[in-house]
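Here is one such protein, fold included:

. . .
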Amino acid sequence: MGLSEKLKLYLVLETDYLQMHLSDFLENVIKGGVSTIQLRNKSQNLDEKLKYAYIIREITAKYNVLFIMNDSIEMAVKAYADGVHIGINDGNAALLRQNYKNMIIGYSCNHMEDAETADRYADYAGIGPYTNTYTKKDHRQILGAEGIYKINNALNIPAVAIGGINADNAKDVLKTGITGLAVSSFLCKSKTPYDDTKRLLDIINERV
C-alpha cells in the first residue's frame, strides 16, 4: 500500500476527547478504516504524550497503520513513529529532510508559499482548515473547498484536507480532488467510532 492509499482516512488523535479506553478506540477506528494516525495532544507535556505514543505505536504496528507524531521530531524518534508532521512554526523543513531521510514528513499548508515548502521537503501535505475546528484554537485562515482546491492543485505530493471535517461535509471536501481526509473531533468524540469511521470510508470510496 503506497502513501496515497495510507492517507485516505487520517486520524488526528486528541485523547482528551475519547469516550472509551485508548486501546479500544484505536482498534475500533483502525478496523473501521483509518490508515494513518497522528498523535497531537497539544495540551500534554512530553512525558505524558510519550506514554500514549508507545501504546499507539504498538497497535499501529500490529495493523500496518502509519503512526505520525505532531510537531516534534525528537518525540517521533523516541516513539519509533513512521513520521512527523510539522507546520511553519514547528522547525526547519529543509533541515529535517536533510537529517531524517527515512522519516515520512508531513507539512501543513494554508498558503501557496506553504505548498512550495511542502513540495520541496515533505512527503505529503495537510491543507486547511476547511472550516472552523474546535480541536485547534490557533488555526490560520479558513480555506473552504475553494482554497483547498487551489493549494492541492499546486502540489505535486499527496495531501489531506483538515479542519472541521465530518460525515456531513466530507463529500464537499472530496470534490477538491484531495487525496484523503484528516479527521479529529468527529471520530475522537464519537461513542461509536467504528461505525463513524466506516461511514467516512464509505463516502471516500464512493467518489469516482
Observations:
- The mean pLDDT is 94.
